[in-house]
Amino acid sequence: MEKEKTELLEILAELEHIQWTNWAKNLIKRESLSIETIERWESYFVPYKNLPENIKELDRDYARKVMSALKHFENRKNLI
Questions:
Q1: What DSSP string runs through 49-72?
Q2: CA 11, CA 63: separation in Å to the nearest integer?
Q3: Per-residue pLDDT band at 71 (split at 50, 70, 90)
Q4: pTM of the prediction?
Q5: What b/e sequence results for 59-77 when a residue is b if at least 16 CB atoms lie within 10 Å of its CB, and e otherwise?
Q6: Distance CA 21, CA 47 (A)
Q7: What are 17-31's pLDDT values in tens digits?
Q8: Which Gene3D superfamilies is this protein grouped with (predicted)?
Q9: 75, pLDDT greater than 80
Q10: In this structure, how many other beta carbons lie within 10 angstroms of the beta carbon of residue 1?
Q11: CA-to-CA distance for 66 and 44, rounded, in angstroms?
């Protein structure tokens, strides 16, 4: 069970990274951001597996929120 939970966490974190990358690229096109911000963000426009652990953890934080929402929904569904 723990292995599956970890696997789901990583899948969701990777999706979160893809979503963030798309959002950040669109924001860079539309907004006037500092060169420092753009350069920092662009350094993370890589596949999730190539991110440093501290950045992966940011994506995992959001993935955990999704997992919590799914668990809450599943618990509610079982009560009906």
A1: GGS-HHHHHHHHHHHHHHHHHHHH
A2: 8
A3: confident
A4: 0.87
A5: bbebbeeeeeeeeeeeeee
A6: 10
A7: 999 999 999 999 999
A8: 6.20.350.10
A9: no
A10: 5
A11: 22
